[in-house]
């Protein structure tokens, strides 16, 4: 997934004044995951809670 500079700037502006490189990377990964999930939700590419529960039950059978 890609992110626009505008969105990236918005997120970076919310970072603390001092931050480690590791924390920047962790935050960028989290931002990417959230943006992906938001896009999936907007595109109705999600499953219902009932379908999720059914899938999880199958995992443990």
Can you tell me the number of structural domains? 1
State the end-to-end CA separation: 34 Å
Task: Provide the succession of SSEs.
Answer: HHH
Largest sheet report: none
Structural class label: mainly alpha
Mean pLDDT: 91
Any idea what the radius of gyration is? 16 Å
Number of helices: 3
Number of strand elements = 0
Low-confidence stretches: none
Which overall shape is indicated by the principal axes computed on the Cα atoms? elongated
Task: Please estimate the helix content.
Answer: 55-70%
Percent strand: under 5%
Protein name: Addiction module component
What does this structure look like?
The chain contains 3 helices and no strands. With 61 residues, the chain is mainly α. The N and C termini lie far apart (34 Å). The protein has helices spanning 5-13, 21-42, 49-59. The model has no long low-confidence stretch (mean pLDDT 91). This is Addiction module component.
Characteristics of this structure?
mainly alpha
Can you describe this structure in just a few lines?
This is Addiction module component. This protein has one domain (5-59). The chain is 69% helix and 0% strand.
Structural topology:
Blueprint: H1 5-13, H2 21-42, H3 49-59
């Amino acid at each position: 997934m890609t992110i626009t500079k505008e969105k990236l700037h918005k997120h970076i502006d919310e970072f603390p004044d001092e931050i480690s490189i590791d924390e920047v990377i962790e935050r960028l990964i989290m931002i990417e995951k959230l943006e992906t999930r938001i896009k999936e939700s907007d595109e109705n590419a999600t499953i219902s809670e009932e379908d999720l529960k059914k899938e999880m039950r199958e995992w443990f059978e």
